[in-house]
Amino acid sequence: MNLEQIIQSLDLKLLTEQKPFHEIQPTTGYAADLLSCVMTGASRGGLWVTLQAHSNIVAVAALLELSAIIITEGAQPDEATIQKANDEGVTLLSSQQDTYRVVGRLWELGIR
Amino acid sequence: MTEQTPLRKSSLISDQEAENITRVEELAYEIKVQEVMTPNPITMTASMKMQEVLEQFRVARISGAPIVEEGQLIGIISIEDLIRCLIKSDLEAEIQKYMTRNPFTVKGDDPVVEALKMFVSTKVGRLPVVNKEGLLIGILTKGDITRGLLKALQQDYQTEEVRRYRASHLFEDIESERTSLILRYNIKAGDFTHGGEASSKIKRALSRMGASPQIARRCGIATYEAEMNLIIHTTEGGVIRVEIEPHQISIDVYDSGPGIKDVELAMKPGYSTASEKVRELGFGAGMGLVNISRCVDIMKLESVWGKGTRLRMKIFLKKEDTVGEGHAAKSLEEKR
């Protein structure tokens, strides 16, 4: 399952720049809104599902080299955050669904 | 010369393509036509037979040639002209019957972008290149431009590789009893906008110096948590000082207040003194110091309430993981 298929299946909105998403294979995922927990729990190359949409999520994802952040419940990061994400090569995706449902769909797709 | 896909000039380009094109466009202004053209092209004269054009094109595998009379460019003959001639079975005719007179030209010292503009506006497949005196010096196709730009991009890439290589060998040629590199970052209190920038830079520096991804990641996480602590909890901000030696990384983070009331309690997972506002941002999980202790080999936290806090950490590097001594470069070479 590559990131392009995930974006399509979950109807995610791409907030940052286009990338060859079909080449990116998220290995696993992690869901939390507390950044230090993410620092401990998220794996390299994994997806991170969160409600947080402020600029500090970018630094966390860049340091951990996550494949993408899925921001839930339609929370909208500001322009500066999107700019920073593009600078750091971090992919931001947005879902209207809540974290519970997004994680459920990812699990169904085989991201475990 | 076979044509290659010209540079995309369509307005329907994705952001990613736009990003790539920016550097290519920069290069199109920097690189001169004479750097990418084919110099000393095969030329012909107006009185030669079309039969010879056919032979020359076939043998030299080209699709166009300038027509020269006493050094002066007077026309150009292309594969399209040859096809028109073939349809009429007119190979005995002279070139001047089929060639294009007074062709468009570009100057050798024009930037490549000028040639690109001319390709777009004239729709020709090749442009003769002339010098200031108007004498023919080369021929240019869109394929030449593509190749020239790709070569320049490749050089850009090699420059980064060289930079990485140099940093990864930093300590090798320096002799002293104990060599180290010190990085310092001043962190402002309450500066959430730049939160994580120092730790990103530290991680990048270590990667360039040849640290393994695991070491760079551990160091990145430890310094991130320390950096955020300075932003969240201090009154005046503080300093992150990273000392890199081949066999160890020593991180020293200090501030001038307010200090930690109960260090033992602060080390407990889940304990936090962060404000409600900061917690809303996702900080204050009470896991920062716990995370740090997981990432480093030695951690020492000292604090005096009202005076300040000093956090010292060390990561030891195994023989095969040392930085700045060319280990990463060696393993890269082995992979090749």
UniProtKB/TrEMBL annotation, chain A:
Family annotation (SUPFAM superfamilies): HprK N-terminal domain-like
Residue span, DRTGG domain: 55-106
Pfam family, one: DRTGG
Domain of life: Bacteria
Secretion signal span: none
Name this polypeptide is given: DRTGG domain-containing protein
Organism name: Bellilinea caldifistulae
